[in-house]
Amino acid sequence: MDYGLLIDGAAVDTEEHLSVDAPATGDVLGTVASGTAAQTADAIEAARRAAREWRYSDPSERSAPLTAVADRIEDEADEIAELLSRETGKCLATAEGEVAETVAQFRFYAGVTDKVRGDTVPTPSNRFNYTKRVPYGVTAHIVPWNYPLLLGSRSIAAALATGNTVVAKAPSQAPLTTMWYGEFLVEEFPDGVVNLLSGPGSEVGGELSDNANVDAISFTGSTMVGQHVLESAAKHIIPVDVELGGKAPAIVLPDADPKNAAVGVATGIFSNTGQNCVAQSRLIVHEDIKEEVVDEIVAQAEAITLGPGTDPETDMGAVISEDALEDMLNYIEVGKKEGATLLTGGKRPDDPELADGNFLEPTVFDDVTNDMRIAQEEIFGPVLSVITVSSVEEAIELANDSNFALAASLWTGSLDATRYADRLDHGLVAVNTFPVSMPQSPWGGNKRSGIGREGGLEGVEAFTTVNSVVVEHGDMGAGYR
């Protein structure tokens, strides 16, 4: 399996190619072209040429290809999900869910194309003032590796639905499935409207964030890289929508169902091997219910079966890379040195059959205080920190005491749940469930977790700006008096 760059409706080869390895086995899955800054500039120019007509396209001209892409992904869903599982390490069921939601997102935005509305503004009787939402033009999309289809399609579909053209960078560590459905996009839309690139972030990503011919940028990834994107875009006053890191708290109050909360928290931190921007990595649990909840989470963690994501017996797959695994192991050592108590996990599994893969046992720390590094820094792996509190007030205070504010969950049987949720300074608050994504719902964080919202009708706002038109019905007098 080998993919070239997709520029202006054609496949473009490069001198160098990047190898894509399976995190669970080390096997080579395929290669992708390694694009350069110059080729990225070519793609931006192609998108700019196409934007001159595409911005004036009828809603039906945008809806039809979005629906066609959804149909084609759905037709090949099983094959795409299997490759997604193999290139990211995630369990097949998780990959299947991601493919299904990707289809749903394309269908949602296919239905949005004729619902992008303006407004009228009250004025004196001699004037008529109306507003309209118009596309930015050329939009750049830097796609993450952890949910490449779900997170990539969220911004790409919204941009296309609102009349923008697209230049997207596939994630270097898991580019194959993005390039797979990228071919659908390129074939269904007019030449130049969609351009898909693969290659190093320093080349492709750097050009996308620093090219003055880009009109808007969507970035999902680490806070550090996001800062660089914002700094580069600022030089050209390019609007940027960024979804960055997270350190999601899961608050469990005394009136919660302990078993249900334990299942939800365990799922929220161990699904996708904890490589999730909304992973519930901080369990803030009331002392009255702590023992029952933590014992159940530990039992669930120790019952998890590790293995390749494509194995139906696997509960948790591999970490994306050896470097990422080393970072997680380093954080585990930091936690021990800081005085946290390791309850379970904390190392690579002993199973010799997993020796070639990047596996880490599900890990739970107790006796964590909120000022410890493992409670404040994003580990991006299956590592849970347990923090004990004695009141609702303390729980909310600690939940908000973080530089990150992407998502939080709250587990309670109280009718005060919505009042508590309103006091949590997080972009998404889930009550009696872990944070979930839906095509019709906005997504994004506060503080250092990001700027802006994508998904839902908020996705329309992310990729359009408002123009105001004023019509004068009377004769002009001496306007300077």
Automatic annotation (TrEMBL):
<comment type="subunit">
    <text>Homotetramer.</text>
</comment>
<dbReference type="InterPro" id="IPR016163">
    <property type="entry name" value="Ald_DH_C"/>
</dbReference>
<feature type="active site">
    <location>
        <position position="243"/>
    </location>
</feature>
<keyword id="KW-0560">Oxidoreductase</keyword>
<dbReference type="GO" id="GO:0016620">
    <property type="term" value="F:oxidoreductase activity, acting on the aldehyde or oxo group of donors, NAD or NADP as acceptor"/>
</dbReference>
<dbReference type="Pfam" id="PF00171">
    <property type="entry name" value="Aldedh"/>
</dbReference>
<comment type="similarity">
    <text>Belongs to the aldehyde dehydrogenase family.</text>
</comment>
<dbReference type="InterPro" id="IPR016160">
    <property type="entry name" value="Ald_DH_CS_CYS"/>
</dbReference>
<dbReference type="InterPro" id="IPR016161">
    <property type="entry name" value="Ald_DH/histidinol_DH"/>
</dbReference>
<feature type="domain" description="Aldehyde dehydrogenase">
    <location>
        <begin position="16"/>
        <end position="469"/>
    </location>
</feature>
<dbReference type="InterPro" id="IPR016162">
    <property type="entry name" value="Ald_DH_N"/>
</dbReference>
<protein>
    <submittedName>
        <fullName>Aldehyde dehydrogenase</fullName>
    </submittedName>
</protein>
<dbReference type="InterPro" id="IPR015590">
    <property type="entry name" value="Aldehyde_DH_dom"/>
</dbReference>
<dbReference type="InterPro" id="IPR029510">
    <property type="entry name" value="Ald_DH_CS_GLU"/>
</dbReference>
